[in-house]
Amino acid sequence: MDELITFMRARLDEDERGARDATPGPWSYDPGKEWYDGDDFVTMTNGQEFVGYGGLSPFRGAVCITGDAGHAQSAKDAEYIAAHDPARTLRETEARRRTLARHAPAAPTEAGRRTVGRHGYDPQTETAPLPNAEPPSGAEPSGAEPAGTEPAGTESAAEAEPDAPPRCQHDGQPWPCPDLRDLAAPYADHPGYREEWRP
pTM of the entire structure? Predict the structure, then answer.
């Protein structure tokens, strides 16, 4: 059951390591095409488009060259690479870890069933419907047993469905839930990715 969680944690760790090992940012695209190479300034106006590091500091260096100067596609490539610098990857990694933690598997519970109802999933196919309205203060719902007692033959959700498949603790959907499948989708080309995890 936890293979997808393990897979995602490993991929996020890889993403984080890659971002931390890369040249520190902020990365930028400089249409002026000038950087400091450690000894002197190098002007590339008639040379190549490049992604630089160091922001707008005059002591910036080149991360990568994308093509000929003035070439529209080379400039677009440089802009795209600069926008996806290591700092952005680290922010995305932390956000995905938080999402992954929220969507861990859990056994069916009353709270999970109510969450399913709130999210509007079909109770006939996803889970048994539960009443959402609470009785007025001090009043017993029609046909209810006195407070503090359970109707005869009533079982908890866990007792009633001991072999039920796990559900997402966040939204009550059968696990892995759609959100977790979407979270894993960018890694579909990884050899450890499984077809049954596809959205």
Answer: 0.66
